[in-house]
Amino acid sequence: MRVRIFQQRRALKVLGEMDRERVLGEMAHLALYFLPAFSGVREEVEEAVRRALALYPEPLTERETYFRELTEILFSALSLPAARPFFSPGLRDLREHPFVTVGENGPEGHRPDRIVFLPEGPVVLEYKLSGPSTEHEKQVREYLRGLSAIWGSPVRGYLFYLRPPELREVPL
Questions:
Q1: Bond prior to 59 in cis (omega within 30° of 0)
Q2: Which residues pair with 92 in a beta bridge?
Q3: Cβ of 59: how many Cβ atoms within 10 Å?
Q4: 22-51, pLDDT tens digit by residue?
């Protein structure tokens, strides 16, 4: 029997040793994980950001600055009219839910940021703090191929850039 051990990739540095952009990106992902829905109220975003910051008990320099900046970034992005349908109250979703595909190189793990189940079908959202890139599109296409194969029906996908706010559809 051949045993493989998979390790979740995480930075080994503590938050205080990461650059500011990386900290903001990780905190934004956590806050969006804690946000089940968004009805346009700033307090919903503030609570999600508080929960994300609470996961890091070590001293986070400029904690209040991170709180204000993240709240502003996320509130602005979530207020984007095109993004609102994906965060509507009452929608079923999966956040950071892993799945595995088997390709030429064996099993491969995936973890989309959010999968929303709309009446017209599932939609994958992948959050990025900033900067469009072909690697981002490639990542979403891998999710779409894998989930379409698993569910036996097409899945739509979007890159959700938080700063500046933009929702970009990724065709399969």
A1: no
A2: 117
A3: 9
A4: 889 999 999 999 999 999 999 999 999 999
